[in-house]
Design a protein that fits this description.
The chain is of the alpha/beta class. It is built from ten helices and 14 strands. The chain has an eight-stranded mixed β-sheet with strand order 4-1-9-10-11-12-13-14, with helices on both faces. Strand 13 and strand 14 form a beta hairpin. The protein binds adenosine-5'-triphosphate (ATP) and magnesium ion.
Length: about 325
Amino acid sequence: MRKLNRFAEICSRFSGRRVLVYGDVILDRYIFGRVERISPEAPVPVVSVELEESRLGGAGNVAANIDRLGANGVLLGVAGEDAFAAEIARLKTEGNRVVRDAHSRTIVKTRLVSQRQQIVRIDRDGRIRLEADVMERLRAVIAAERVDGIIVSDYAKGTVNAEVMALLKARADTAGIPIVVDPKPSHFRLYRGVTGLTPNLKEAAEMAGRPIGGEDDLAPALHRIRRRFGTRFTLITRGSGGISAAETGRRIFHLPAFSREVFDVTGAGDTVVAVLTLALAVGSELREAVALANAAASIVVERVGTSQVTPEELLERMASILKRH
Ligand SMILES: Nc1ncnc2c1ncn2[C@@H]1O[C@H](COP(=O)(O)OP(=O)(O)OP(=O)(O)O)[C@@H](O)[C@H]1O
Ligand SMILES: [Mg+2]
């Protein structure tokens, strides 16, 4: 009970907090339809469209997670001057600082779904151009926004580069706020000196420079990543294995995953970095922040598609987890 009160207290501080989410903003589009015949033009099915939907993906989903927790996700990235960017603006009305640039293209992932089966995914890569004028606009937003924490959601689609990372790190340092990166291993050079990293197992193995075969490999990998990148902490999200974490001067800890039924794990990593950073931004200990992040992830994997959780849902899940242990 005492523990649950502590988590309730942390969640009660979310309201009014601002978290800057920088990174690859993706528009996730879904086209649902029925296959009824084969095309006369080519040996392919004809899909008759019943429903079209779009959602915020990538950094957009991280910001949506922050919003849903009752705080304000300030979304910053680059999109084109196209209809997809307009759709992003429609989905994120408040705290949308996405820079629209005529020389870039909005990153879009379109899934065609029929009878609950994904038939094809169409990726429109972003061709994100961080030229001088775009950099200037990004710099202005980073300098002007008063935030309690920074998240970098890097999908290696071109939005995250050395120059912006330097700006974000400097901003976090002067403001004394956490900067947490959900990393892509190919960009590892950019992450030195951030507060924390949240790779999944595969990314962690690449970043540690050695395979993670079993539980015994976790501690050495966590220590190696922390030392290599000079971070205060590192987590490894391990899918159905839960989360393992290491923090300077503390013992490593492991939290098991806690899900009733798993439907769709997409976006679970976005939820982890969002809840974790917001909890740290309001002053919780790493262990508390990871426990909340793990609980939130256990909810979103039970739902189809990317989703977000409210503080109420999070506390309810926290209560069942505490009861179980
Ligand atoms: N199959 C699962 N069963 C239970 N919990 C899960 C499962 N998959 C993911 N989770 C929860 O979600 C967290 C993050 O998932 P994961 O390690 O797959 O991150 P990820 O690969 O970065 O995800 P993504 O990039 O798709 O958002 C896990 O640490 C765990 O808490
Ligand atoms: Mg991930």
